[in-house]
Sequence to fold (543 residues):
Amino acid sequence: MTGLTQAVMEDCKVCVALVMILVAVDVVGSGVHIPTTLEGPFEPVTWSFDPMLRRGSDDLPMDHPRLKKNVTSNFPEQIALAISSPTAMWVSWVTGNAQIGLNVTPLDPSTVASEVWYGMESGKYSMKRTGVSMIYSQLYPFEGLLNYTSGIIHHVKIDGLKPGTKYYYKCGDSSIPEMSEEHVFKTLPLPGTNNRIAVIGDLGLTSNSTTTIDHLIQNDPSMVLMVGDLTYANQYRTTGWKGAPCFSCAFPDAPIRETFQPRWDGWGRFMEPLTSRVPMMVVEGNHEIEPQAAEITFKSYQTRFAVPSEESGSNSNFYYSFDAGGVHFIMLGAYVNYNTTGAQYAWLEADLQKIDRRVTPWLVASWHPPWYNSYSSHYQEFECMRLQMEALLYRYGVDIVFSGHVHAYERMNRVYNYTMDPRGPVYITVGDGGNIEKVDVDHADDPGKCPSAGDNMPEYGGVCHLNFTSGPAKGKFCWDRQPEWSAYRESSFGHGILEVVNSTYALWTWHRNQDKYKENSHGDQIYIVRQPQYCSASLKIIA
Ligand SMILES: [Fe+2]
Fold:
């Protein structure tokens, strides 16, 4: 038996005892019964779209106070934090003026330094780190289309941080001098301490996105998990003007899926009040692909965000992992090779083997398009990815999977290979951040709403649509009722908070946007309970 095997077994024994105690405390103690996954699988529940609400809203204009640049050229703006490791944080920001036009001249990143001063007392910065700076361009070699080149994007890693501790910092270039105002953040707590993780997806930059973010800030998270489709800058022509809910419908003559890159800068400003004090961890969605000249894709996403790929042994920014407050997070790329023979799969397997569940009992995975989804939109779109990767994640006991892409909320019963299984992860879709494409309301099991074979083509990878081989939908592509693996679904904008209570209990609450205006109101809520007695599968792998 290896040391790691022994460790996992000890974890199992402790956790089984804790599960039993906590179930008793919860059910007997609180008065208000919050269901636990131990009581599942649950009968499927559907809340249809409330016709009193609007299905969508327009994007905020570029001159909106939350989007427009309100600092001088080299003053740091769009400040954002990202976790590098439990003791290190990335600080990113932008200086200089982006340009858009037929001819643009890239800025020289070496002209402005990248410094962060930080310390544990306001106004006293005992530590200083320097980092890297870069620019990117978005070039469209088509007549009449405008090109873009970014401001200077800075990334600095600060280290030596203690858990659960406040740090004050400034960023910028002290030689100009152009240093930012003081900002403050708190590092994530030690494992075993209450840890609040906000989860959002498909956010965009509309008035609904504003409600989502303001509501999320009220809920005071210690980090933000952003599950892809960030700005929706690709709902625009390069000339800007007005974004459209459907690009191909509004602009059928566009020679390429254009973007209006200044939307990214507006989004960075819009997010700064949150991201300058709470780390945000991102994974790419289809709206980040943004093809341009020379078949270059994902340029804005890749340049703007620092992610701990190198720190986690990944050679790609599209997939990486990190530890935060008792959780090991795995972020997977759905728009790069996910096959069992590819580099991502090899990295994932190696990463899973290294997890010490005494340190990070929780294992949370995230990628953009959901594998389990009963809405018509994106139904079975990423079946090929599921077929390649699901068994590996299952064997290592992934607890929760967060995805977006579908613009609605759905929580699954524990499931593996479309079969209810207490060892399977809890899959949750939260692609309901509020973007311009509007909320999804149709279910694949609604009469006449089962997608046809040509619908829901993935932007990457093949098509692996399947008919179910067992259960009430045997032989069919769609169910005639809400599938048994779908526990709760509701069409509304919102965000989620995962509150990691201890090594076995986490409280998941979905906060609908309309609940922002009511006291103690929220949507779906459940305790997700780890059951380490089912560790045996992962033990076989580790031993
Ligand atoms: Fe998407």
Summary: The CA atoms of residues 47 and 490 lie 5 Å apart. The chain has eight helices and 28 strands. Residues 3-29 form the longest helix (27 residues).
